[in-house]
Amino acid sequence: MKATIINIGDELLIGQITNTNATWMAQKLNQHGIAVDKVIAVADKKEAIVSTLEESFKNSKIIILTGGLGPTKDDITKDTLAEYFDMEMEFHQESFDNIKQLFAQFGKTTDKRYKVQAEMPVGAKILINKTGTASGMWFDYEDKIIISIPGVPREVKYLMKYSILPQLKLELETPTIIHRTINITGKGETHLAELLKDFENKLPSNIKLAYLPNPLIGMVRLRLSATGNDAIVLETQLDHHVRKLIPILGTMIYGEGKESLESVIGKLLIHKGFNLGTAESCTGGNVAHKITSVSGSSAYYDSSIIAYSNNAKINLLDVKPKTLSEHGAISEETAIEMARGTQKLLNVNCSIAVTGIAGPTGGSPEKPVGTIWVAVTKNEEIITRKLKLGKERLQNIEQTTTIALNLLRRFLLDDL
Questions:
Q1: pLDDT per position as a tens digit, 366-408
Q2: Among 122, 114, 139, which residue's Cα sits nearest to residue 57?
Q3: 337: domain range?
Q4: Exposed site from 176, 339, 373, 386, fewest CB < 10 Å?
């Protein structure tokens, strides 16, 4: 079962807003066994809407349009569809009553403009939108289903959840699709694909493996998708194949689903009774930000020192001036002294220290942009890593953060 999503609005085409509707809708349709074949953004023009609609008929059973249902002159979707399906317009009392009720909540009254907005195509199923003034419309056309809804995200979600998806489930026989996501860090997509070649070749025909890399932060998600009629059988299948991944990927796997690297580290620190402090130079507090984004992180996280200058490294972290003069701020020796200084200053078991050149300026032939040192401590033990990243500042900061956190995770697991 295939669907096309048509998002209408000039604001989408000029980059004025991000098309979050399409992503959310595709996820929900997929969960109901409906595969999205295309997502198309079109202008607020009659010709564009009609031609895109007709093109979508070729491959999709379901076409969902968003946008262009408001009360202003540029909102032409409703009139365009009524003309296309040769339907007269008439006043729809239930839509108008909904508008009046919404206005009453704010102590306002409606006027004649909203009577015009309550005019709907005769023959369409009207979808009452309790979160906005524009009703949705459902058209049955030959063997196709065409649905038109407003483009405001909260209204899209309301109508999809309470009107569209339940009705599609009643009218169509769709398969069950279940996804399982495995979170990976430490290796890239190409390396993972090589490791998983045999695993992927042996998957049953109803299970597909997808690679979802995020190069900015240096992580990859593996998504296993199982299709069938029995949800319990599919869950069992996925459990079996996820277990097969564990011996292949080992501690490259840090979690499943929405589990974050920083939340996993928090659980490990609590389990071991450790507390953590961080000292950052080139990452400017990003490591601390990630750690403290987890609710309850105060149970194991103490503090962060942003030691950007050499003076800060000396005065706050007890880095020796001699170390800086002989080895420089971007060195293993400095990273070690920053990590040890953090332990001493904050009285913590574990520490992360980062110092480097995030770029795009500031490098030298000996230490080019992207040269970064990370040091991680666990009681008396310490490990270091030299990173050689690229020239993009934001990417260097994010990748360094991920690598530093993952280094701590593996250190806590005694996997180094």
A1: 999 999 999 999 999 999 999 999 999 999 999 999 999 999 9
A2: 139
A3: 269-412
A4: 386
Short-list 39, 27, 36, CA closest to 161: 27
Last residue of a domain, one of 115, 137, 171: 171
* Cα separations in angstroms, 136 against 10, 98, 127, 360: 20, 12, 5, 50
Tokens of 40: 């198309």
- Return the C-alpha torsion angle 28, 32, 38, 44, nearest 10: -50
The H-or-E segment that residue 226 falls in is strand 219-228
262, part of any domain? no
- Last residue in a domain, options 128, 145, 171: 171
Report if residue 305 sits inside a domain: yes
**Any idea what the CATH number is for the domain that residue 362 is in?**
3.90.950.20
Q: List the Cα angle 183/186/187 in 5-degree steps.
A: 90
Q: Which of 157, 212, 128, 186 is nearest to 29 (CA)?
A: 157
The verdict on 133 and 11 lying in the same domain is: yes
**Of the candidates 47, 115, 141, 123, the residue with the CA atom closest to the CA atom of residue 87:** 123
Count of domains in the chain?
Answer: 3
- Residues 24 and 349: their CA atoms lie apart, in Å, by 42
- Looking at the structure, tell me whether residues 21 and 140 fall in a common domain: yes
What is the C-alpha separation between 61 and 144, in angstroms, rounded? 5
Neighbouring residues of 178: CB distance < 8 A, sequence distance ≥ 6: 225, 226, 231, 234, 235, 238
**Cα gap 394→309, rounded to integer Å:** 19
pLDDT tens digit sequence for 275-323: 999 999 999 999 999 999 999 999 999 999 999 999 999 999 999 999 9
Residues 154 and 193 in one domain: no
